[in-house]
Amino acid sequence: MKRLATICVKSGWHHRTYCPMTARLDVAADIDPATLHLQDVAGNELPLQAWREDDAIQLAWIVENEPACATIEYHLVSGGVMTAPDERVLVSDTGDKLIVNINGERFTVYNYADVVRPYLYPVLASGGVGITRDWPMVPDAEGDTRDHPHHKGIYTAQGAVNGVDNWSEVEGHGYQVHQVFTRIYSGPVAGGFSEILHWTDADHQPNMTETRRLTFYNAPAECRLIDYEITFEASQGPVVMGDTKEGGLIAVRVATSMDVTGDMSGGRFVNGYGAVLEDEAWGQRAPWCDYSGPTELGWRGVCLMDHQNNPRYPTFWHVRNYGLMTANPIALHDFTGDPNNTWDLIIPAGESLTWHYRILVHDGDAADANATERYHDFCNPPQVEVIREDIS
Known about the structure:
Layout: E1 2-10, E2 16-25, E3 36-40, E4 45-46, E5 49-53, E6 56-66, E7 71-78, E8 89-93, E9 97-102, E10 105-111, E11 119-123, E12 154-161, E13 164-166, E14 175-185, E15 190-200, E16 206-217, E17 223-233, E18 239-241, E19 247-253, E20 268-271, H1 277-281, E21 288-295, E22 298-306, E23 317-319, E24 324-327, H2 333-336, E25 345-347, E26 352-363, H3 371-379, E27 383-388
Antiparallel strand pairs: 1-7, 1-27, 2-6, 3-4, 3-7, 5-6, 8-9, 9-10, 10-11, 11-12, 12-13, 12-19, 14-15, 15-16, 16-17, 17-26, 18-25, 19-24, 20-21, 21-22, 22-26, 23-24
């Protein structure tokens, strides 16, 4: 086997745990990405995903554990016996759902056909326990609350898009209509998809186009990771996203057992600035928010992270004691109590805006999951240096 490069990963000031990494390598056109291997300095092989993009090869892997202020070296080598693709993250299309399995275990399902809006449900933490409410997807779900039927799993919605309600499911609501998957992929490091959606009015007439990209990483069940990217394009003319609390560019309705009950036996949520529960955190800005609580198998949680490059970062949070958590950067008058304090967002015709979020599904609460450090994995990742050694 032939060493092509040494890859140095510098952790910086943060302890890295199951941190997704990428790098670019300029190599000769005759090098097949399928022949590449990533090894640690002891020669142990690590999961690697490699693909050709333009005149370079893109690499993806995961740093499992790297202390703060440390440097880890990897060797990129080519050659050896080519093996069948290692699909540790497997994304399968059934025709109306995408099934996501990680290392042979069900993680989640993306429901995209014959729905008002696509959503992830169920979303399973370690032990296969769900962190999203079962109702209304399971009509007779025992013990579940039965409010807000439009709160389904993990989803995207907004209550005023050119005057159309694309948040609720009351009469006259809009839809998000699946058009096509431009990519569905599986692999040893990550799997995912890219999807085109039309946001429509009640008569299914489009008022904008969305490109949605989700990436599911090969991380352990106690700390699953999803990158969730949305791009809104004003494809049908200008788009006015109206100021309303009824929205969440990323939203989750947690399992009923995780709801806040008013005592320590119930669930709780905390934001990145330390605000706890609705009285402190509702309508406040923060870089992340975490909702956790008891399940039949112990304490589980979900953290939503807002990237620092997103429009209107840090986002406002529409987060409720009854189990709803949404990142809503298009609301102000409800949060401030001033009807004249509005913050509509306008996308001019032909232009687009993109938001990047990360979802962490974890054991324990936000402190157990070390949510602050996991947030820095997302927004302030390690530095990568690729040192070419013998490329010809």
